[in-house]
Hints:
Elements: E1 5-9, E2 14-18, E3 21-22, E4 25-26, E5 30-31, H1 32-37, H2 40-48, H3 50-56, H4 61-70, H5 88-101, H6 103-106, H7 108-118, H8 124-130, E6 139-141, E7 147-152, E8 155-165, E9 173-179, E10 187-193, E11 198-200, E12 214-224, E13 228-229, H9 260-280, H10 294-326, H11 333-361, H12 371-382, H13 391-400
Amino acid sequence: MLTATWPVHCDAVRICLCHNRRVCVIGDGMNSQAVLAGFDSALETVSAWSDRAETEGRLTDEAVAALIEAGVARLYLPRALGGMEVDPVTCARVTERIARADPAAAWFVMVANSAKLMAAAWPDEVVAHLLEGDPDVVIAASGNRPFRAVPADGGYRISGVNGFVSGCHHARWLLSPAVFDEDGADIRTVVLPMNECEIVDNWHVLGMRGTGSNDVRAEAVWVPDVQTIRMPEPGTDRRNRFYQGTLYRCPGRIVFATYVPVTLVLAESALAELDALAAGKTPYADSRRLKHRSIAQIKSGRALAIYRAARGYFYDALMEAWTRAERGETASPEQKADLYLAGTHAVQSSAAVVRLVADAAGSSVTYQGSPLERIVRDMETLRHHGFANESRYGSVAQLRWDAPLDYPLMLR
């Protein structure tokens, strides 16, 4: 749908992305088009189980197994650990491809890769303990509420409740912040075994139901010291021996490639549904087809422009981050904020597109089971996500204006 041509770089050859076609060599010879095609076999399964995930509030085992088989848990994992180590543009396009089959299943790209990207800053022994020999292991993660840690038996007992743990039903481990002292100064990342935690069945929400983003409760779950991690300060480059490739010179916010594209696909799908509706619908108390109503035409045109601009801006930002990393450059705080702005804007612009489409579609959006009804619900849920909600625009301004940061994690 896009008409722009964007230069991209990979480790082995300069390539370009044009009209959604991309040919490049990644590292030791893996073609990025082959990475995308590798997920085609999973899409039929993902789509077939989408309604079941919506009903049950979690992805089915069948859908997750198909995604794992296709390599979803290896996208951002280093080749040294059996991963694909794809560039962020390829990762974003994989996310889009899965989202067209089921947006909730595409959210699993984030579940399967965010912790593995964060692991670039973990000590060697932690990476070896959790990831070496098992590239498909799933580590769910949430920073919503920290646990409490108490020294015990040469390790720690972890207790508390954390929220919004997407994909918790399919994870072996849970990554979470934890407080290790009384005054809250010592906060570390802790990795808990999911089979010793309790999943709280409270993901009863408007949209994105299939993500299974429930609370998780830990009651004195013991972990060894190797599963507690002191993360470096934002802006610190401390990569372990496994994470030496170009990908890991990018800002940590390339994690946006694992979930922001879900919102772009919702906007794309909403526009397609409006096009189909316009051809056949005659609104109540009007003799004209929807396609002949000027207000619908205006909202459609505005929505299309917003979508194309936001998608182009987002992919441009990902490619700039990748190109900079290929040159061996470290992103400045301002450049990290620029990437964050592009991701936030993609989410919020996608929400604006869906609202314009809903306005143009009228009562068609209100019927349960209609495609637009689900798109509206999913988008309404995603636009409030803490990583890319409207307040993150302000976080970017705070950095530009040298004001106190409300979200320092933006600079990772």
